[in-house]
Amino acid sequence: MANSPSGDSVTDRLVRILETFTPTRTAQTTADIGRRAGLPSSSAHRIVNELVDAGLLERDDERRVRVGMRLWELATRSSHALRLRQAALPYMERVQQRVREHTQLAILEHDEALFLERLSAPDSGANITRVAGRLPVHASSSGLVLLAFAPRDLQERVLAGPLPRVTPETIVDPAALRRTLAEIRTLGRVIAPGYVDEVSTGVAVPVRDETGAVIAALSVVLPRDAETQFALVELHRAARDTERTLGYRR
User: Fold this and answer.
1) 127 with 197: CB under 8 angstroms?
2) Which residue numbers delimit the IclR-ED domain (predicted)?
3) Do residues 145 and 205 make contact, with C-beta atoms less than 8 angstroms apart?
4) pLDDT tens for each residue of 14-34
5) Which is nearest to 141 in space by CA: 186, 103, 89?
6) pTM (whole model) above 0.85
7) 162: cis peptide before it, omega within 30°?
8) Domain at 78-246: CATH architecture
9) CATH 3.30.450.40 residue window(s) in the chain
């Protein structure tokens, strides 16, 4: 890709534009996109117009820009994440129906827990997770499971810090985090009371692919003082069923 006068490539500028969209910032003006992407106004308008013409972005009735359906279509073709979500969803629905709280599926992406799906009952408790949202691996129950089974170099990179304190209960001591990760590998689950939200407890278990590698975490978010054993039983059952769907045989 050709570089701009400032030295950044076309690909870099495209990525910066797309990264200005978040789960809570779904529509923006072109001027806002340019400012957040650090691009000159003329460049931002030109690139956004080209992306709109290609269907990757679209404009609403107020001339604000949104992510286009064409981008979603392309992203889901032959997507590993889509296959995983489709395999897990029936069993997540069973967990959610029985536990009646938030049920989530996450994968490891750029040293964070990226959430592919979340199911919630109308009366479910507090939860800060969103589909396509991210949480720190050291603070969230899903993240801790993913980190515990991640490659050693990734673990060491996270353990080297920084480990931001999200709540007073977040594990920020590397030695304590290392012990927690070893415990997760031994027990095959984690219970994280108040780690990422003071009023909630995250409970998570690993999901393996056909090779036996951990590729995802299934979790529920319960009220802080709720009993966790029933949720763990349901999560383990859902994880096993998902793994069989993916081709893993214990």
Assistant:
1) yes
2) 70-248
3) yes
4) 999 999 998 789 999 999 999
5) 103
6) no
7) yes
8) 2-Layer Sandwich (3.30)
9) 78-246
